[in-house]
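re: that chain from earlier
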Amino acid sequence: MDQISINAVGRKELTTYTEYPPKGYRVRISTYWWLGRWAYLKFILRELSSVLVAWFVIETLLQVNALIAGPGAYQDFQGFLRNPVVIALNIISFFFILFHAITWFNLAPKAMAIRLGGKRVPAILIALPNYAAWLLASVIVGWLVLRG
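^ sequence. v structure.
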């Protein structure tokens, strides 16, 4: 099918259209592209860890609900926590949550470009307070749990 069109200079020219335009070149990417480099795998694992963080949040909310419902409900919840599948899931979740926290704390210096006196603050000075706060919160929670 031919059609007459006017180009940018103002001249008439004959344009030919095809019914099926040619497809552009597309590089085929493997489904397992994220296994190619450690940085990609780390990204996928950090995203996957979000699901396990959600599991811990749901489990904590269920525990609070059982505490509010009374001693019988809390005993039932503790029975649920003794299930081997739940124990295995919690152990796996624990390590993924550690991975999640560590990778996010290490990303903080890349997200925050703090400058003092025209120079960028070293990454360790941005990440270190995150780790210090985490350690302090862990010590306080550990102390509260172990004392009671």
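The two ends are 85 Å apart (CA to CA).
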